[in-house]
Amino acid sequence: MSRSTSIALPIVLLVVAMTSIQSGASLAKSLFPLIGPEGTTALRLSLAALILCIVMRPWRSRPNLAAWRSLLGYGLSLGAMNLLFYMSLKSIPLGIAVALEFTGPLALALFSSRRLLDFVWIALAVLGLWLLLPDTSASDHLDPLGMALALGAGVCWALYILFGQKAGAAHGAQTVAFGTVVAALLVFPVGLWQVGGGLFSMDLLPVALAVAVMSSALPYSLEMFALTRMPARTFSVFMSLEPAIAALSGLIFLSENLSPIQWLAIGAIILASVGAAATIRPRSERQITKP
């Protein structure tokens, strides 16, 4: 493999992974009228857990009690993050939901920093959030509950990163399978309570399986390949483009038209994420990975 190919391939795969995740989210939204966001999350995580267990065979690893604590935290935060994110999509556009969710890992990356430059990125993120504040006098104002759910998903994403670092250090790739099983066990009863027997309809299986593959199994594999072939900082910078990809996906697949102010807000949050990832000190680098 040539040097140019070795550099370009992980970047291309990472872009494909982000596109797959957001296309999967757009497809998942088509299930909301049938089983709601709770049922959709339950099916996605359950099918993803089944796929990952078949592929990774996590039962070969035997976590000790200390490892189970971090795995449990990782899985619970993963399940809550997915559930809150899908619930937010019920009332706000995909691109805005992802931008709001991104404030979680962004805050985590900047939390321990005291440099003047980092306060520039904080100011940009705050500007983006301020621009997204609901204006009840406008016809396209955002739902406050949807925004709160997306921000809650961001908090869970930050916890997912913290617990994932500890669990991943002990179990590597098996962590994803263990965590997804725990997440499915958390969310499936919620979906079953909301939807009942309709959750087991075979008519839903093709779309739900596609969502599980596009939003979990495929991007997990591509992101892991890319992460092992590029610096964590570069990985984080490219991941910061995800809100823009989400907004474009929402526009193409869901006809979610955003106002110029909303595009500006997403741009400010993206710029803050890119700046934070590009300038953060190596000793405090944090991976921004997402299921």
Task: Quickly give the structural class.
Answer: mainly alpha
Kindly report how far apart the N and C termini lie.
29 Å
SSE order, one letter for each helix or strand: HHHHHHHHHHHH
Share of residues in strands: under 5%
Number of domains: 1
Number of helices: 12
What's the short version?
With 291 residues, the chain is mainly α.
Question: In words, what does this structure look like?
Answer:
The structure is a single chain. The protein is globular and about 45 Å long. It is mostly helical and 291 residues long. The protein has one domain. 77% of the residues lie in helices and 0% in strands. The protein has helices spanning 3-29, 32-56, 65-88, 94-101, 103-110, 116-132, 144-171, 174-195, 205-227, 232-239, 242-254, 260-279. The model is unreliable at 283-289 (pLDDT under 50). The protein starts with a helix and ends in a 12-residue tail after the last helix. It is built from 12 helices and no strands.
Give the SSE layout.
Layout: H1 3-29, H2 32-56, H3 65-88, H4 94-101, H5 103-110, H6 116-132, H7 144-171, H8 174-195, H9 205-227, H10 232-239, H11 242-254, H12 260-279
Overview features:
single chain; 291 residues; mainly alpha; 12 helices; 0% strand
